Batch of 2 targets.
Target 1
Amino acid sequence: MSANGCSVMITLEFLKGFTKDKMCGKCLPCMLGTERMVDVLERITKGEGEEEDVVLLEEISSHIIDTARCKLGKDAAVFIKDSLSSYKGEYEEHIKEKHCAQKSCEDILNYWINPEKCTSCGACKVVCSEDAIVGDKMIPYLSDNKPYYIKSKKCTNCGKCLAVCEVDAIEIV
Amino acid sequence: MSANGCSVMITLEFLKGFTKDKMCGKCLPCMLGTERMVDVLERITKGEGEEEDVVLLEEISSHIIDTARCKLGKDAAVFIKDSLSSYKGEYEEHIKEKHCAQKSCEDILNYWINPEKCTSCGACKVVCSEDAIVGDKMIPYLSDNKPYYIKSKKCTNCGKCLAVCEVDAIEIV
Amino acid sequence: MSDQVTVTINGKEIKVPEGTLIIQAAKMAGIDIPHLCYCECLPSTGSCRVCLVEVEGGKGLVASCAQKVKNGMVVDTDTEKVREARRFVLELILSNHPGDCMSCDKNGACDLQKYAYELGIEKTSFSMKDPGYDVDRSNPFIERNYNLCILCGRCVRICKQQGADIIDFVKRGMVTKVATPMDRPLQESGCDFCGSCLAVCPVGALVEVDRRFCGREWEMKETKTVCSYCGCGCELVFSTVDGQIMRATGEVSCDYICSKGRFGWDFVESSERITKPLIKKDGVLTESTYEEAIKVVAERLIDIKKKHGANSIGGFMGAGNTNEVAYLFQKFLRAGIGTNNIDSSARFLGFPALIDLYEALRDGAVVSMKDVEEADVLLLVNADLTASYPRVGASVKKAILNGAKVVVIDSKKTEISELADLHIEPQVDSEEFVLSGILKELLEENLHDEKFTKKCKNFDEFKKSLDGLKVETIEKETKTSKDFLKEAAKLYGEGKKTIILFGAETVSSQSMGLIADIALLTGRTKASVLPCLLSSNLRGTIYMGALAGFYPGARRANEIGNDFKKIWERDLPDEMGLSAMEMVENMGSSVLGMYIVGADPVAQFPNSSKVAKAFSSLDFLVVQDVFLTETAKMADVVLPGATLAESNGTVVNLEYQTKEVKAALEPLAKPDWETIADLSERMDYTMEYSSEKEIAKEIKSLVPIPKKIEKNTYDFIVVKPKKSGEEPDGKYPYALIVGETSFGFYDGQRTRNSKLSILELNKGNYAGFNPEDAESLSLKEGDAVLISSRRGKITTSVKMLGSLPKGLLFMPSCHEERGVLASDNVDSKLKSPQHRLIAVSVSKGGASK
Amino acid sequence: MSDQVTVTINGKEIKVPEGTLIIQAAKMAGIDIPHLCYCECLPSTGSCRVCLVEVEGGKGLVASCAQKVKNGMVVDTDTEKVREARRFVLELILSNHPGDCMSCDKNGACDLQKYAYELGIEKTSFSMKDPGYDVDRSNPFIERNYNLCILCGRCVRICKQQGADIIDFVKRGMVTKVATPMDRPLQESGCDFCGSCLAVCPVGALVEVDRRFCGREWEMKETKTVCSYCGCGCELVFSTVDGQIMRATGEVSCDYICSKGRFGWDFVESSERITKPLIKKDGVLTESTYEEAIKVVAERLIDIKKKHGANSIGGFMGAGNTNEVAYLFQKFLRAGIGTNNIDSSARFLGFPALIDLYEALRDGAVVSMKDVEEADVLLLVNADLTASYPRVGASVKKAILNGAKVVVIDSKKTEISELADLHIEPQVDSEEFVLSGILKELLEENLHDEKFTKKCKNFDEFKKSLDGLKVETIEKETKTSKDFLKEAAKLYGEGKKTIILFGAETVSSQSMGLIADIALLTGRTKASVLPCLLSSNLRGTIYMGALAGFYPGARRANEIGNDFKKIWERDLPDEMGLSAMEMVENMGSSVLGMYIVGADPVAQFPNSSKVAKAFSSLDFLVVQDVFLTETAKMADVVLPGATLAESNGTVVNLEYQTKEVKAALEPLAKPDWETIADLSERMDYTMEYSSEKEIAKEIKSLVPIPKKIEKNTYDFIVVKPKKSGEEPDGKYPYALIVGETSFGFYDGQRTRNSKLSILELNKGNYAGFNPEDAESLSLKEGDAVLISSRRGKITTSVKMLGSLPKGLLFMPSCHEERGVLASDNVDSKLKSPQHRLIAVSVSKGGASK
């Protein structure tokens, strides 16, 4: 997973990094508060965010600035606040439209086999460990051909099919 | 929503009917217990069921038989028990494979546009109130055509597109 | 005694009466079976299934609250099967109970929590469901959070049984909810706020607003004492945290206590309380020290006594103090000052009725509220029970549920009259004719007890007098057909356990005689009447001698022997002493100093403008009270008084039972007896009591504990019925009566300073009109109206009261200006004002308050 | 006194010492600032941020547990800003606290719950996170549910301070958890189960296993009494529900109490308790009634006395009864029976040391445990403090944290020796030489108090005797370089507040003298020693006269005046009375009847096979005890005794402080004093006491309350050091000592019947070997081994003990057969057995138990 240019994902990865590296864990508001923000941001990147979540992030970061023990935690909270105000639109896009323009937040996206490109070779079906891909190999001149498609509700966006498709027929949409 | 031949859906609809019509509401185990079973069955029909859910249904119905005040509640519980033992396979299919062979449980199913049949008329995209369908109308002789597809994660299985498609290209899979 | 059956519960064999429920039998054997919907005082529904048990030989589990024991039954209440079933039901309930004990005020007193703990349930295994109802915080009494409701239905059943019957289950299945009609807030649904629902709720769905977040169950200190409102003398348990009252409950959750008892205690903590002595300086009451105030009062009283003699001083007190305070106050005046000028509100609140009742039947005739519940025929005379003495009202309701027949005599409709078998609605003020008519019918129908009447010397004279009264006269005066009187006579005469209930302050002296006659005529000399009393210690105040003409023990002032002189160590005055209205008459002339304790004559006494004028002519006035009353405002010195919730001692209730009062709070000032004693000491009459217990000991040494004395020979009271009030005429065409309301009380001093006041229009400052009268006067609800009587006039608000007959107006006794209109005519014998009926005129206008 | 500063907290001005934390200053002003990580007895970490406050002029909020007050500081603890911050932190904590108060046993005592309630938090606004840790229920003492842990770190800090220092935070961030090294269960991590962590946990993460689901906080009744184990006499608070003990705690959560105190009380509720009297019928002890048993005992004792005289009867008791029971028992024997044959376990458990100490220094030299904590140098002689007298051990640990230097003289390693600055490990049994060596070094280094020694008459004699002892001899006997002795002398001599601690039952009479000499030589006659006592009322038992040769008040039996005769109303015997071992010697000949209370001579006394034989030759034996001991099994009559947890009275602890014992439970049988009194009555010596209070009154009238008497002139004890035990030789090449272990206690009677016993290998039935010794004997952990002494042999299990030096074996005092091997040689002066060191031989084999 790479943040690319998505501000929500960048913020999430920053926070995850903070909790893993910088955070000393000596005071509860910073330790618990940043983790709760990670939860909220993860929710948003998965397309499960709600409009109150932005307010919640605002509140938590303000409170951390008030209550945390040292500068490290407070600085992290300031970073979040800045991101929220600078990239308001991107947060809203993720929350309201369940869409990540930068295509960083894979969990919101659908894997889809573009029938225009698909050669019906079947490689993707073979590698899918979730049995999310159905369809039959192309048999020339058969009229009732069953094209390949991905059952999104079973698909976990693991990316294996993406890797094996030689014609780039599998698209993230 | 029609039960058709799916035993899980039949049981769920039986129970819903029971809670709406027959249940007197005078004793808590029957009133609360049947509603909890409705919850569990709904979970299963939505593909969110877990293996313990069958055990849970077993337990609740046994307990209702033990504790309920009158025959109505007990009979309903007996019905559930019977269904569980008679149609074990179907329950398992819903839970493990997230699949409803009878195609009754819409929530597990994916709407999918069969590119073999699709004429790219665009009628489905027009009626979709969730903006779940993307794609462009067919422009003949254009090579980079964008076929229609349904973003399952936005699709609510409302069925409107199904109704307008004149070539039955939208399939439930 | 009913037949006994033998049952074995958990291996323990016991004998219980036939018809006992299994759950009750287990309790007798010392075994508590968990239960949620079952409640001792309510009919079983068997709905929660938590009380399931195993019965040997039976198939399946049995709800122990719904099944009666059988001889030889073997019951197990705690097998693994039972526990598993119980756990299932509790987990289901918990899955529908989205609260956290953490901040629930029922934590520690919640039955659901208790049973879950006992069964070791840490979490429900089912998915949680949150109904998501809004919490009803729209009234300051009961917080209703139906998200926590477990649908046990206790509140529904008890509301039917002892409340206003306004809640029920609505909808079905999982969306079932307890609600008022149309799901309106309680205060718009006719709720009488008895709070019974609150008391029986096993979980946190119904909680007292006052206690929310103010202290947890285990932090509470409980004090059992007596309610300070009406004469029912209900036992209240105050729960306090850090010296603050959190709630009042009955001793047992099912005990009925009325809205005033349960919610009206907050006047005790009102910011309006007087907490420091006040001395009038340059016309302004100014805070002072206790010592200085006592010194000033002592000096001024000594001065007046020296100059004008002891009889130039008088004392007056309310009828809501403890026996100990009442005793000490009259002792102070009689022995300390040396005057018999001592009277109390008892004179205005039923003393005439009580003394007449005592003369005619003695105390043995007085029944208990329990007797009322078990009676089969009840005759109610001029008593709006549920408003005035709610606990008696609840007993009557219970009697009705038990099948009792009720006859109501009242010119207006009441809650009970609506439930009664017969409601006689006579022309206002004609009760004496109605009662005489019933007597005539009892004789005519041969329902009298001949064996008994033969023993009464004056039966013939009595009968002759009755014969002299024509039925036509009765029908004319009462505007009531004799058929109704006959029906009443038949119901009463044929009853087995019959009781006559009446408001002691609302019946005339003659009516009292007639009520006694009805009991006598049917030979019912014992356990036959219940005089309803408005004040929390009416009878005690009288018995303690805080009443002109009577010494403690109801000894006539002119018949006392040497014992008082001996124990009080003083010579005692010879005069009978002036009664309240006599003192008022003589103020400024022979009466120059007054000491008032816990009473507000200037606002309460009839013809209050005249009374105020009289008080203003005094040389010295000292008032001891909890609020700055109209009288206190005129005082030279005001001493802070203590409420009953802060007092220790005893009171006597309307059942003539002595009840113990215990302080739930530290008093804001000194206890009243201490103030009186300190003042007395300062005036060189020693009163060295270490506590109120020592006063009680002295009382005991002087007079026997009030007890029910029975009479041997009885005489009928020969009465010529008349109307005792002011008759409406051309100039004053309307009749006005003053009476109690559901959320007001007496002079309103307490209820006005309570959250209860929000439940009365304008805190009770209104006049009630029959809608037709209102229409003919072009009056609408809330309009300002000018009401005049021969004494004065007031401006007040209009309220529509469908319960009133045409021509009759109603004014709450808690109306701040109730005294202005009333007549100060007094009964020549008992010196008691006859202020029941007032002739008034009405005109639209004036500034509405 | 330190400088005072003035601060204003919530508008209230107070003066507090400089350096006070804001949170402490607030407490002094009566203001509680919510806090979770802060704990009065622990260093602050400022981590939970719940105690945030506003300081005027400061920017932002301040953790009041981490900031000290400054003069003129203005603090607000309850502003909206503070409450909001607090609410945020609490909601965060709650989001990580997936418990439900419903079934949490901390409900009602949980700080998190309390603060949430006070702030009106009903639910957290954050998503809940459940760490999903497994609950550790692997030991029967502490249930650890780290899902509820709020990471306040109190347990970590207190474990460091007064526990075994085995837990700490592991991992970081959200996966931070409190754990033992490698997250092993407590019982495998060296935990000493003092339970201090439990006591300070503010939430439900650590809970006593015993109380889980057995009763909620508000249902508990608390009784403050004294622990019945060692002589520390710690105050315990028992919480009971329905007469069952749920837990034991200190008075304050930070108070240290050891594993025995906190968890070892369950022997009280053991099913092995004797609850009914037993009478031997046809050789079998058979249940009987109390009346019959008393009758039989009285008749048999009367019979023996008649036939053989009073001195044919003897009495023996433990040293763990109350003063009142000890007093009554000796009174019964002396005045009731008429013999001075009365002795107690005190003689075996330090009586010689105490009497020597008294002779040399008087009681004024005895310090308190608080003194120990404040000392700067501590000298420990033969005392495994943390195992034997854990509370003293905790005090020493605290002293070390406070910077004290510690010198340990012990042939084996102990928990404290590992922390000590100097550990002298002399050849076993050579302490007298070590102590003499230190005395020599003190003189040589000129560290003695010349001004003081001049005042001592025999200083020269003492010095001469010391000079006569060669340094080489000392080094040879002790196998210790004199450099160590010099270092010890310098540390001790140069200390300011120095205390010598020793096990009263583990030092010889001569060592006691030498310890006194060390104190005297440095002029430290006051507050200088702490004799550690093993029994809960050792000193009281002696002082009450339950000891041959001494009457109450430590009056020598041959020097008593008339006061005893007068108050006891009997002539008293002339003889000094037989001591315990003398009675044993004479059993079957001149001693024919014995009465034993709360002691097990047959198992406890040295050379137990011989003792058992002696007891079997008695005509009559009555035993009064809580368990069926070896002695009880031989008895003709067994009377049930009461434990200290069921008794009322007083005991005297090792600080010589009298402590009040209160019954937390209804006794299973009669209180011991009642049984003695009933028996006495039955033997025509009246003992009419209504309660133990009356006995205490009688004691007070006879002897003064034990108090610390000081001496005016002092003499040195001139001692020629020697070895007092049995020296190993060719036949018996190993030295064996018996001693206390962490989870066993004394004769094991109590710990064996407690869940504590699971923490000792084979319930303490083992012998400890130095691993090298074991290897040379080819022994492995758990192997069966045959150990023989000159008295007998036993088979037991092998345990590796690295703390032992080569050649020394260790046996827990709670070993069931501890008496078999020990020598019954007695000290000729004090009649006390010298059973410390036993020469034994070891061979592999025998059936391991």
Target 2
Amino acid sequence: MASSLDVKNIRKDFPALHQEIYGKPLVYFDNAATTQKPRQVIERMIKYYEEENCNIHRGVHYLSQKATEAFENARRNIQQFINAKETHEIIFTKGTTDSVNLVKTSFGEEFLQAGDEVIVSVAEHHSNFVPWQVLSEKKNIPLRIIPVNDKGELIFEEFEKLLNEKTKLLAITHTSNTLGSIVDIKKFIDKAHEHDVVVLIDGAQAVMHKQLDVQELDCDFYCFSGHKMYAPMGGGILYGKEKLLEKMPPFQYGGEMVDQVTIKGTSFNELPFKFEAGTPNVEAILGLDEAIKYLQNIGFDNIAKYEKRLLDYATEKLLKIEGLRILGTSENKASLISFLIGDIHPYDAGTIIDKMGIAVRTGHHCAQPVLDHFEVPGTIRASMVFYNTFEEIDRLVEAIMQVKKMFE
Amino acid sequence: MASSLDVKNIRKDFPALHQEIYGKPLVYFDNAATTQKPRQVIERMIKYYEEENCNIHRGVHYLSQKATEAFENARRNIQQFINAKETHEIIFTKGTTDSVNLVKTSFGEEFLQAGDEVIVSVAEHHSNFVPWQVLSEKKNIPLRIIPVNDKGELIFEEFEKLLNEKTKLLAITHTSNTLGSIVDIKKFIDKAHEHDVVVLIDGAQAVMHKQLDVQELDCDFYCFSGHKMYAPMGGGILYGKEKLLEKMPPFQYGGEMVDQVTIKGTSFNELPFKFEAGTPNVEAILGLDEAIKYLQNIGFDNIAKYEKRLLDYATEKLLKIEGLRILGTSENKASLISFLIGDIHPYDAGTIIDKMGIAVRTGHHCAQPVLDHFEVPGTIRASMVFYNTFEEIDRLVEAIMQVKKMFE
Amino acid sequence: MSIQEKATQIEEEFSQFEDWMDKYNYLIELGKDLPLIDEKHKTKQNLISGCQSRVWLHAVYEDDKIQFTADSDAVITKGIAALLVRVFSDESPDSIINADTEFIDKIGLKEHLSPTRSNGLMSMIKQMKLYALAFKTKA
Amino acid sequence: MSIQEKATQIEEEFSQFEDWMDKYNYLIELGKDLPLIDEKHKTKQNLISGCQSRVWLHAVYEDDKIQFTADSDAVITKGIAALLVRVFSDESPDSIINADTEFIDKIGLKEHLSPTRSNGLMSMIKQMKLYALAFKTKA
Ligand SMILES: Cc1ncc(COP(=O)(O)O)c(C=O)c1O
Ligand SMILES: Cc1ncc(COP(=O)(O)O)c(C=O)c1O
């Protein structure tokens, strides 16, 4: 394990970072949308297709055996990575959205009744907001919304006020994709559990920045996506406590999730297969396994320290720009910055910043409710990870100065 | 376009075919489970991750634009490939199972009522059987089952008898994954439409063997998987007629499928995005696009002709083996053979055939109802495609002789 | 001037720019000349809501010609809207229905018309054609 | 003989085979020696249904020892079941609970014990240990 972070060498692992965009070296600051992949992950996928590709489970032949072993081994590694108690508490999904929808369907629609209440926060990504809103409308389950303060932090006291004996589920983000605020979820989970409230955490923006321990957190469900943590697209995780997963009905039907089928009726396979209908995306899961190894090899401490330095440097530099305003100013923040430049529209700013070779995201970041709260139509978001550099931040500052020159 | 099929050169495109298993060159006859990928497809994926990887849609920056264009371009190509009328009739899913479940949820649960009836066949893969069985139980919708004759063909006259004014949906396979029978679905579709019955076709085993035309067939839904047609895992297609898709509610919630979200309520995006929640698997779709190009380049006529020759050769050779019995003897058959060797258990046979370096599938092939019908616990299935050879069939025959020697 | 002539004129204007910055500066200027939609027509009904920027569009029909006015909250969107209004305004429904927006590609602004970019411009063009169709049927 | 001794004995028996075919032929032979489950115990309750093959398992407890009988519809599964029965039968609940199945790996049949292979053998081992546990608590 490297004792500190050698960004120059790390960048060599990421082929996509060495491109030119409009004749300028690419600066990739759209990591919260999706991360680039290290060659180790790409090579793992190639190896899979060149040497192992096979439909897994239940096959008696060599390749099937080998691919199944690799796949189930990945499940064990992911279990250890998040410190889940049981291997079968790791359910493979398409991504965070799929994971949340699974819980909405197999837990929410099944066990929540009219009159029960669900609590979310105003800072949720649509993927952890709309499913509950739809459930709320369909089953007449009031949706309670935790507000944020001016720094963009979930207000714990307001959450406490929303809690009552009707509350059955709390679904909140670990880290806001728009404001960057890291929520002290342990505090929310403990409080919720005092009232026997089941807790789902959207970890899509958290799990790549800091070592996770679901047993310590004691959350009931935890969701995340592979593609946001240096793994291929199309793979995600739902962690759920065995006790809950056991009693939930399947989400989709067909393939591996079935035990016995007769024209009279069907019995379902055990965990985790019960929730994994259809041919699984083996490639994406093996890639995720490899990505986790890659991160562990760099070391989560090193990553966290370096990303904090990037965040501090960028914050300082950006705040020096006249008229620039940062949304989300919690002390406990992931390395992403949402900002506005005076009255300049994010679309205008984004267009020019792009022309300068820098990929940032503009718009509502699939989190309209919290932008409504701050009364802005959108922001510019620069999200940085361990392969970004201080020089890249300087280039962003330059680009912003250019934007100001053109639109002010 | 090649005028006929040059298998020697084609095999060079498939790295996975050039492996040794137990010291013997691999014979891959498990193509109905999943196919191997040509290097063109693998290279497309690598290119994506090295040069284009990005979260698509709504991004204003260069990479996002480029990836979005490639993605939407793939949608247009797939539309043309199956001759759908509109681009937005192509919905990207995880695979066939996901596609069928989408229709089960957004059409079945929404528009079918207690007392309505659904017709499936006994030859369905679990993925097109269990969803309807579960719906049937949940909503009290009788499930009617089209039987097969001794050749393993769906009996059209029996289907006609099952049809009545209560029938609302017909969900049948285009090609049986266990028996190989190709269903004359046009006949079933026309008959069903006479009674205003909506028709879903499971094309998982059909679309890689023969050119498809959904407008000519006039089916209402058509489902297939990328990984069974030389494309990466994790991508599939639901084709649906605009008129039906328009009125169906979303399947999952979050991300791209949303239009406006407020804490008061949410409006949904238009087709096809309405059904595509969460970050899509761009890589899998670009890979599918490339796989289709690869197939078109060889030519579907060439593929069909060659695969027919393989099937005829294998059938002839296998039938010469004493005690060998083929399940599924329709004249109109895909290039796969399910068989039993005397009283030898498929597991025993499969284990030995594997040791001889040949990948076949044994067991119930996720199609238990039809095996119950034939009163066998499972079969051995060899499924062949255009990269297989006559010599490989000879090796299978040898392996079967070995099995007989050991167990008879 | 016909739609085609106006489009060619715009292509010529843009051909003088050597770098993207001059082009965008000119676009910003053009935005300022956009015949602005009357405040009273800036209604919810006339709003085209993209997820990146918003566009308002209004149309009047007189003497077999349509006159468009528009606005946007983003300056670049406004500049492109100005180009579209300039080309499509003062034209008959028929010529609008048959017109294409090739010139936008040619002057290197194609990316802003991507259907998935969601800045309101694609919907604006669609809306302009719908107006033309509606006025034609009425006429 | 202890479980460990029996396992070692099996390893020695298998070490004489040079190729897989001899090994499987021997396994087929062993299947024939499996103490077959009495037809009357071949009940649904004693059935372990894998999706590849099926296994029946029965257990009796006498003098602090468990005796297993079994059967399978597949010959190779039966051979491996025979090995498991030979090692685990005539042992005390405690030794069964603590035993492992390393010897199966060592003689190169590991693949048949893969939890996802679904031939009934993994569940058979689980079931043997559950019997041991049950008899122990009863004792
Ligand atoms: C006929 C048929 N339908 C459905 C499926 C399910 O496809 P998938 O596992 O890709 O969802 C398969 C393949 O396993 C199949 O052969
Ligand atoms: C906080 C948060 N939740 C959920 C999601 C949805 O993830 P995915 O699109 O991978 O399903 C995202 C990313 O877009 C996110 O940032």
